[in-house]
Amino acid sequence: MKKEHFQRRKTTIHAYYDEAIALFGENTQNWKFVCPVCGHITSVADYQDAGAPEGAIAFSCVGRWTSATQTIFDDSSDKTGPCDYSGGGLFDFNPVEIEDFGNYFEFAKPEATTLVLSHSTSLTGTGVKT
Prior knowledge:
single chain, alpha+beta, three-stranded antiparallel beta sheet, 25% helix, globular, disordered C terminus
């Protein structure tokens, strides 16, 4: 399991949206977030494709709505993919406190999303779901 270490920070909803637009453009489907527990990068479109409710976006790992291969406390390094972390549980690892809204995931950095896309592309035709 890849653990991400993010600095906690505070922001406003407007600043958070402005940051997302600067990183990924105005199409919210392309906005990407990093689970602070497993490091899985997920877009808004991925949450919707998994059937997650709107309130789960950037709040809980998408693995809660897929067949997650790891749990929040699984330290196995051989597990990949999203986990079952929920930002609304006993443990709050969400690093971005949005004023008047709560704590949410950090954005994926564009270079990290390019790496994931490159890796996913190499899995095309292998039967591995990306």
